[in-house]
Amino acid sequence: MKIPITKPVFDSSEKEAVIKPLDSGWLVQGPYVAEFERLFAGFTGARWAKAASNCTTALHLALDALGIKTGDKVVVPSFTYIASANAVEYTSAQVVFCDIDLATFNIDVNKLKEILCKDKDKEKRIKAIMPVNLFGLCADLPEIMKLAEKYDLKVVEDSACGLGAWIGNKHSGTFGEAGCFSFHPRKSITTGEGGMLITDDEEIANKVSSLRDHGAGKSDLARHKEKGGSLLPEFNVRGYNYRMTDLQGALGVAQMKKANYILKKRREVAARYDEALKEFDELITPYVPDNYTHGYQSYVCLFTNGEDITGLNMEKIDRLNVLRNRFMEKLEEEGIATRQGTHAVHTLGYYKRKYNLNDEDYISSYAADRLSIALPTYATMTDEEFGYVVDGIRRGIRE
Fold first, then answer.
1. Residues paired with residue 179 on neighbouring β-strands, in sequence order
2. Handedness of CA 387, 388, 391, 392 (dihedral sign)
3. Could you give the 3-state DSSP secondary structure of residue 50?
4. How far apart are CA 324 and CA 309, in angstroms?
5. Residue 399: pLDDT band by 50, 70, 90 thresholds?
6. Which partner from 225, 247, 362, 381 sits 20 to 30 angstroms from 371, CA to CA?
7. pLDDT tens digit string along 189-246?
């Protein structure tokens, strides 16, 4: 049996959706993107949603709209996908890495406090925080927002994995000035590639609308709907080509109609894992704080081989990493796909060289990189597939 790490939920409605723009002849950002934006804003409770070509470009748009520029600094967790840091680099600002809390895989608020307290350089000071709502679990956003207010900082949530993540009745992406989402095929809903920025700030929404479209004063859709549409719009700011196509927008509309179903089913799979994996001391299952709702873009465990991981050091992490990798190879041999959760960005060549960093500088992030393991999770997972994965885990651990 072959078990993928995830799979999208498609049926005839997606096929019918993508044909509509083909029939209409309007393929660039247009009416279906607008409808997708409306549905996404309604789902998350944001005032505005603005589609982009992907989440990375959405993050860049958010930072640009907030005025982040050369000489500024932005705090980013050191355990995240490289896109988070890359978006900061696109603005020519500096990345300031912060370690994570291994229990949640999200930014460690105590470490964040230490960084902000030490930020004394008035010429090149920290101007923003980019908390990542990793794997579908919100970071400690209430505390982060308190720190942002205290130090007069902007907050851009990297909520690439955050669809269906809540704290109380507040959705991820709605705490900071902006939140950005991904629709890559590994996410709960997908448009192939694609991203979305949400905000409650009208000025940010208007800036992003222009910036994503080369800096145009109005969109092609708006121009073609009004008298005088034969004339090109004004371009008063430097922008980018970060638009979403209407083919993707139509696919997004179809996916949004399934969003609640998909999230419900993914949470059911996660609950089954929580129960089934209790027999394995070798794996620590995802932790969900009180009043948090996990979206389970990924179901990510820590491989500990049953050892105490308090007071981790490099020697223990590297030793356990060998065992984790062997375990993942065993599952792969049985046709069960797994992945490490994501990477510790400070260990990757570009950032390691540019900022003169060492692997041990952010020890929890390093541990998460070396010891995390994402298990197959998708809404349509059958009982047979689930049982096969758990049996494979049992055999892999024994061997």
1. 157, 198
2. negative
3. strand
4. 14
5. confident
6. 381
7. 999 999 999 999 999 999 999 999 998 765 555 545 555 556 566 778 889 999 999 9
Non-local (6+) Cβ contacts of 143 within 8 A are 109
Q: How would residue 397 be classed by pLDDT, with cut points 50, 70 and 90?
A: very high
**Whole-structure pTM over 0.85, yes or no?**
yes
Written out in words, the top-level CATH class of the domain with range 12-256 is alpha beta
DSSP code per residue over 237-262: S---B-PPPHHHHHHHHHHHTTHHHH
Q: Would you say residue 1 has pLDDT above 70?
A: yes
Domain boundaries along the sequence of the chain? 12-256, 260-398
Burial category of 169 from C-beta neighbours within 10 Å (exposed 0-12, middle 13-18, buried 19 and up): exposed
Is the fold of 12-256 the same as that of 260-398?
A: no
The second-level CATH assignment, the architecture, of 260-398 is Alpha-Beta Complex (3.90)
Instruction: Give me the sheet containing 73-77, strands edge to edge.
Output: 48-52, 195-199, 178-182, 154-158, 126-129, 73-77, 94-98
Structure tokens at 26: 């309007």
- Please report, as a single letter, which amino acid is at residue 25: G
